[in-house]
Amino acid sequence: MPALLVTLAVTASALLLVVRTVRIVRSAPRPKYRRASQYELWEIAFLAGGPPRVTDAAIAGMHQDGRLAVGGPGVVSVRQSVAYDPVETAVLDSLARTPDGSLDTLRRHVMRSPAVQAIGDRLAKRGLMRHPRAGRPWRLLAAWQTGICAAGLVLVLLLTLTGVIGGEGVPFVLQILPAAILGTVTGVVCRKVLGRRVTPAGTAAVRTYRTVHKKDLVSEATQSAALIVALGSTALLADDVLRDQLDEAQRAAVGASAGSYSGSSGSSSTASSNAACGWNVPDDDSHTSWCGSSCGGGSGSGCGGSSSGGGGSSCSGGSSCGSSSGSSCGSSSGSSCSSSSSSCGGGGGCGG
To answer: Nearest 5°: phi and psi at 122?
Structure first.
């Protein structure tokens, strides 16, 4: 009887999870066919690596044409205050709020700027991406189901081996084994499917764009730093100084995110606010997705040093998250997540 109840409970949970996963995947808008020329470079960068990729591509492009200067140790300065689109405007505005010109801080501000966050919203409306909030409760259910089934099976096996659970006939552990396997497998698969930000249509768009601009990537005469970063990574940049500084900023962001997530006192209290913070929130199965950038906790919560924001968020230099005039995190949420001198989150792509 207990084995039957366990089997029924796990089967019901797995069936519900599968049904909801299928509905969420199929609920994404069906994208219209577009030629590669109809996509903006920033949209492709967002599909390839999220807000960090957009930020790095914009900084690389503005450095290449002389509007920005990036040098050691991670300092950015303006040479020409000229912007040609909202993303580049966000770079200049964010740099104006970064008195020390820190590349690390600049990247954080730009990533959570409304101009960059709005790119993700547009792509989600067109069916090329899924919003971080889409299916979040079911990703959590999948994680719980996987953990409970796996841990329960191990516990029952240990109790059986030690003689605590016995009896005649088929051992209890073998009676619940099919249910445990079913719950674990469906939990892992559904969580992976729901955790994918980019839809197949979005992946195809990046592939098509890369194919069309293949010559521009290899020809020295037409090489664009912004295009190289958007479709590839900062590691492909020919400018050694720019490449090294961006790579260092990315590593610092990933390290800060990983350090703040593990054992942080504020992670549980800010998890709910992160759920609505926009496109910088990392996927549940990767704390450093898109460089682990995320929105921080509530007003006055300390970040950096010994404490951090929740859900993989981090801040630099011990400043507080969500304290005052920063750029908003996510155009739809409208919450403010960064202070005037620093901000939460990190960079990329990690990106993903």
So the answer is: -65, -45
Q: How far is CA 88 from the centre of its chain?
A: 21
| pTM confidence score | 0.65
Residue 226 belongs to a domain = no
- 59 domain residue, yes or no: no
| Residue at 211 is within a domain | no
* Closest CA relative to residue 283, chosen from 270, 271, 292: 292
Higher per-residue pLDDT: 131 or 144: 144
Among 125, 95, 54, residue whose Cα is nearest residue 351: 54
Domain hosting 276: range is 248-336
Domain identity same for 17 and 145: yes
Predicted confidence (pLDDT) per residue in 184-237, tens digit: 999 999 988 888 888 888 999 999 898 888 877 776 666 789 999 999 888 888
Q: Identify whether 116 is part of a domain.
A: no
Question: 139 and 267 share a domain?
Answer: no
Q: What is the pLDDT of residue 253?
A: 77
Closest CA to 105 of 48, 59, 57: 59
Q: Which residue has the higher pLDDT, 126 or 266?
A: 126
Q: Which two tokens stand for residue 257?
A: 């995110």
Instruction: Give the three-state DSSP class for 118.
Output: helix
> Which residue, chain included where needed, has tokens 């200067």?
69
User: Cα separations (Å) of 12 from 15, 22, 156, 182, 183?
Assistant: 5, 16, 21, 11, 10
Residue 88, pLDDT score = 95
* Domain identity same for 297 and 167: no
